[in-house]
Amino acid sequence: MAFQSPSTVRGSAFLGRVFSLEKNFSIGFSRLKRAHEAAVYDAWFREQVQASIDDPRQSMSDEEVRAMFAKRKAALRQCA
User: Fold this and answer.
1) Cα angle for residues 6, 7, 13 (degrees, 5° grid)
2) Averaged pLDDT in 10-residue chunks for the chain of 80 residues
3) pTM above 0.70, yes or no
4) What is the DSSP letter of 59?
C-alpha cells in the first residue's frame, strides 16, 4: 500500500462526508418536492370537487350520461 500523508487521508474522508451529505440532501429534497407536489394536487382536486358541488346546473343521473355518450359513440362510428 502506498504511503498517504495525514492530510490526504483527512481530505478523502472529508470528501466522502461531502458526497454523503449531497446524496442525503438530494434524497431529502426529492421527498420534499414530492410532498409539495402532492399538497398542490390535493388542493387543486379539492377545489375541483367543491366547484362541482357548488355548480348550480341540474345534476344528471348515471343512466342519462351513459345514454348520451352511447349516442355520441354511435354517431362517431357512423362517420368513420
Assistant:
1) 90
2) 51 58 71 91 96 92 96 92
3) no
4) P
